Structures are given as structure tokens and as C-alpha cells.
UniProtKB/TrEMBL annotation:
This is Beta-glucosidase. Residues 702-771 form the Fibronectin type III-like domain. Pfam families: Fn3-like, Glyco_hydro_3, Glyco_hydro_3_C. Residues 1-20 form the signal peptide. The keyword Signal applies. One of its GO terms (biological process) is glucan catabolic process. It comes from Pedobacter frigoris. InterPro entries: Cellulose_Degrad_GH3, Fn3-like, GH, Glyco_hydro_3_AS, Glyco_hydro_3_C, Glyco_hydro_3_C_sf, Glyco_hydro_3_N, Glyco_hydro_3_N_sf. Coiled coil: none annotated. Belongs to the glycosyl hydrolase 3 family. SMART domains: Fn3_like (SM01217). The keyword Membrane does not apply.
Amino acid sequence: MNKTLSFLLILAGLAFKSSAQQKPVYKNANMPVESRVKDLISRMSVDEKIGQISVLLGWEMYDKTGNKVGVSEKFKQAQAEQYTGMLWATLRADPWTQKTLKTGLNPGLSANATNALQKYVVEKTRLGIPMFFAEECPHGHMAIGTTVFPTSIGQSSTWNTTLIETMAAAIAAEARTQGAHIGYGPVLDLAREPRWSRVEETYGEDPVLNGAMGAAMVRGFQGHDLKSGSNVISTLKHFTAYGVPEGGHNGGSVTIGIRELHQSYLPPFKAAVKAGALSVMTAYNSIDGIPCSSNPVLLKDILRTDWGFKGFVVSDLGSISGISGSHHVAANAEEAAEMAINAGLDADLSGYGYGKALKKAVENGKVSISTLDTAVANVLRQKFALGLFEHPYVDPAKAVKTVRSAAHIELARKVARESVVLLKNQNNTLPLSKQLKNLAVIGPNADNMYNQLGDYTAPQAEESIITVLKGIKNKVSSNTKVRYVKGCAIRDTTNLQFDEALAAAKAADVVVMVLGGSSARDFKTEYLSTGAATVKAAETSVSDMESGEGYDRSTLDLMGKQSQLLQLIAKTGKPVVLVMIEGRPLNLNWPAEHIPAILNAWYPGQEGGNAIADVLFGDYNPAGRLPISIPRSVGQLPVYYNVKRPVAHDYVETSAKPLYAFGYGLSYSSFEYSNLVISKKEGGNINVKFTLKNKGTVAGDEVVQLYIRDEVSSVVSPDRQLKQFRRIHLAPSEERTVEFNLTADDLKLMDSKMQWVVEPGDFSIMLGASSDDIRLKDRFNISSVN
């Protein structure tokens, strides 16, 4: 009996061992990731490898019938012919994709759709490699039913990295529970050209602020465990120097020096890579004649060798083809594919940049199998890191519960509140009383929900968006009569309501004017294959859109009849509060001189109306600060604060200084800076300590900004450069000791030999409320360099 049992146990053991041996290494979760990657690549054909690094447009890959969703014939064809391993914008809905509230997917159906697509590839393809789903996530997941936060320029106006990290985690949770794995964002381009159409997507003009915000987004997106089911890979955009195109033309060439590239444009990306970013997107532009999508110095030497980047690089949509078609440095598609992958560009967002062209390049010996395998490994490594081979599916019920939860809606309001910048408050016009008898709300952005949401926004249910008008009505007492008149459109000069607006203003105690711009896309707009708008100089049917990808400007003036409407209302003599909702800094010269109170809210997202009302009526003390200078004229451009010395002199017509400088913003409180002490610490760090006091009668936040100046440097350096900042909350009369510690990284520059060094000499410390409002100043000396 015992011998029989022993024999059976031996047989069972042998059977188990045989089964384990038959299981491929890449499907064994207990094996190291690198072993799994190597094993899987060894089993793949060239076509399958190219398919894994080809990213197709995703919104055509599912079919929806009523409340059921499944894979489309186009997806089946893509798998049969292209072996694609990654889709982009599968859940995206907007006029370009032609997905509406009716034809698109709600959160539950989104989860069902990604599950169906995953099930198909896992069960019906030869190797069963799970799909990667990449989605746009700059200020919320760009899908139906998700939470819409302020656009990036508003996020950076909070100067609150902890808050932005929390926001990013919420965006990631909403995207991941619907089946997404990659979130496109943050955008780390320096916005030093406000005519450029994509300023709203950036964190502004400063490398330190951009880097801090970018790192916060990466931490929020990726968390501490990609297998959590609540995190996504962060894709940094656009590598690099994309935000300063000549003439403001989106995707145009840029003119910067190599030292400036290293000192200003690369640091935000380096900070985000240091924070753990696992994906980087190349930019459309070229630098010094080399397209970013075929630049080995950027993609290999700097990104991987110098910074130790471990993720994968993806092209912007069509940018590989642009090496040939736009930049004309490649003769054909094959040569463009060869240049891109040999330079270190791993994945092709489009599906036609690599595909057949890359296969031909491999067959002709222009791209080695080793190079192809490296690119494929960089992508597959992250699929294993996310645990997709073990857990490819998501729970639709969890998606429904997570997306646009009450907590996320409240968070959207908090981010919007903290982003509002008070530019002017003459004679304490604000805050307003909630007991006003008559209030006029006038302007094209007062009650237009899409105009306050920004670009990269999905269609919205009307009840989900709180406009400024709604927010004000939610705030005032039942005894306050609120009269709304649109007055005019953003761009269209027909259908004016000047008489109605004038009548409303004359009957009001206070007038709230809501003007600015719009990035609201519509179905009448034509789009390029990249998603950028096609702009016509004269349009028969004029949309409000004057910002957003492709909508570059030659002036920064308010468009249409907005200025005339504002001036007409101001002539009534009634107190006017101007609220600007916009995607880029617009001309405020006349309002700054004639309007007593001005708020800048950028595009504040779905809770923008409530947030603005909180500020208008004193339930929230504003503390937003400008992340970008507001110029007086396009003739000043560029007008960013940290321009290299010498300091600019005035023009014949106007000051050389911006109307409102970088870092500027007012409060309902006043803050006192005192007792500055600078000391050197062990290890060479510089300690900066001072006292901050709230001298006002209401609690509020002060955004303390620390700038430095290298008094004498071996290469030309900025007159001042932000190095650290902190948003600090103080009760009335409360004071606090604030400390900063400067390290060698804060003091270094790139010398004449292109080496990073800290040079001996004097440095000035400047502490204040903005780049041109310095409250405390002193010097310290670096006598020697270790």
C-alpha cells in the first residue's frame, strides 16, 4: 500500500514538473522580468515585434450597440495584419474622433471595451501578449464621464505640488479602472511664446516650477506600485523645446543655444525622469537642424546615458513620418523609420511611421535585429511591470464607482480655487457681499461650459459642469436678483446684445464680466491627422475657439467685440469685476487701468464656476500666482522674467516690463517678511531662514518665492532665477519661521566647457511674493568648490 502511494506521488511530481517545463518563461510570474522579456522576444517574428511598437488609433477598435460593446472588424484586421500591441485614445471622445455622449462610452462600457479588446489578444493571438492602452490625461482622463480639472497652466498657478500630486493620482485611478495603462502627460514645454496655441497645456515659463509640477504629476500617476490597479505610466511631453516656436507657429522650428537647452529646457524633463517617469514623447520640432524624433543625442546620450531613463520613448502622432514629410531630412518612409529607431525612438504613435517602412529597413540591413529587439524590450518591460500578463482585465463596477466620484469633484473645486489669480483689487472691491440686491453677469464665458474646460476635453453632460453664472447663483442669497446677458461671442461679431447688457449693468449694484478665450472644439472645425485644428483666416461660421492645439495667434488682444463690450459697461460707473477665462495670457492693458478688480481663472474645469464664486464672495482667499508673465504687447516678446543679462531697457512706446510679472498674485490678506538669516551648513548647503506673518484679518496662503542671482559668472546667467517656493497657510496675525536649503544643484551653471559647476563668488538671495516683488535680499559667498 505504501509502495503504491509512493509510486503515485512520484508520477504526480513528474507530471507537475513536465507541466511547469512546458509553460513559457514569459508567462511565469515567478521569473525575473528581464528573463521574461528575453524569452518572449525570442519567440516573436519580426512582424510581431514591429506590431508591439506600433501604436494605432484606438477609437475605431470597438463596436458599440446599445449597452453592449465588443471588438470591431478593424481591430481584428489590425491584429491579423499588423500584430499591434498598443492603442492610443481608445476611450477618447471629442469632435475629431466623432465620439459623442451618445456614440461614445461611459465608464462602465469603457471597462467592458478594454476588457473585450484584451480578451481577444490574450485568447486569439499566437503569443497572447496583452494590449497597452494609452490615453490623454493632462487635466483629467479625456473620456466621457470623467472629472475635468483645470488645465495645466491653472494647475501650476496653485504653486502647490502636493495638491497636484493628489489630483494626478485621481486622474490615474479614473483612467486605470477603465482599462488604461498609460496617461499622456504632463506637458513640460516652457511656454515663453504666448502666441503659441498650446500654452494652456504647459506649466508656464519657468524650468524650476515646471520641473516641480511635472515631478508631482509623475508621482501621482505612477504611485509606488504600478500593479496597484490605480496607477498609470506617465508619458512626458514634448521632448523637447517645443513651446517656443518661431512666430508662435505650433510645431515650428525653434532657435535656442545648446547651453540654454541644457540650462532651461531639459531640467523639467530631468526632474520628471528622476521622479520615475517611464515614458517620454518626442516633439515635432527640430533643434539645431536635428528633428527631435531622430536625435540620438537627446534620446540616447542625454535621456538614457546621462539621466538613467529606464522606460520607453514614443513619437508624437505622425512625427516619424514628419522626419521626411515636414523636416525633409529623410528621402522616404523607410529612411525616416531607420533614422528614428536607430536614434532611440522605441514606439510609433500612428502605426504608419514604422510598420511596413520599418520592416523594409530591417530587411535591407539598415536597422539591426538587436536595435529592433531593444525597442521592443523597452515596451514589453513595462507590460510586465504593470502585471498585465497576470491581470489583463479590469472591473467595470469599480470603474463606475471610481470615475467622477464625489471626492474627485470636490478635489476639482479645490484645485480650481487654488489656481485663481487675483490680479487687481482696487479699493477692496472684492470680496462681494452675498446680500447684493441686483447683480449683472455679462460676457461670452459666463455661461458657456465648454469655454471653461480647455482643450483635450471630452463631451460633457450639462448638469456636470458648473459655469460662472451657476456658481454665482449657488452662492448668493435668495434675495439677490441675478441677471445674465451674453453680450457677444468670443470671436463672432454678429448677434451682439450690447443694449441688453447695458440695461442689465445699469440696474445692477455690481457687474461681473466674464471674458477671455476658448479652446472649445466643435464639429464644424476641420482637423489635421494629428488632431490639431486647421485654421482659416476668414471663416464663414466662426467658432469661439482662439486657443488650443493649432490655434496660434498673431496678437494677444481680446477677440471679437469683447473689448468694446467691456468699455461700454465700464462707462456706466458701476463697480465692475472682470473674470478672465483663457488658455494664454491676453492683453489686459485697458482693464488694468480702468477696471477695479480682475481675476484670472485660466480654464478652471468642471467646478470652475463654484471655485470662482468662492473667491468672488470671500469664502476663499485667493492665492494663485502667475506661472507665466502677462505682456503689455506682442512687440515685447519674449518677456519671460529670467531672461539673461543685460536687463532690457524700455521701448519708445512702453515699458520693457510685463504688465503682470511671473509669480504675481494678490490676496485678501497682507503678509510681512522679516528677519532674514543666511548660513552655511555642513556639506556645503546654504540655509535660508526668515519670518513670515499674516498681517491681515482673514486666513490666507502666501506663496513664498526664493530667487537667486549669480553676481559674476563665467558665462552669462539670468538676472534672477527661481530656485525654491512654498505655499504657506497662516491664520490672521500668525507668524512662522520659513526655511529653505539650497544645494549645489541650485547654484550650478554650465560653464564654457559645457560642464556643470558651482563657481566661487557672490550670490544674491531674493525672497518675495513675485519675481518683481522682492521683500528680503542679502548675499552669501561661495569661497571654494569641493
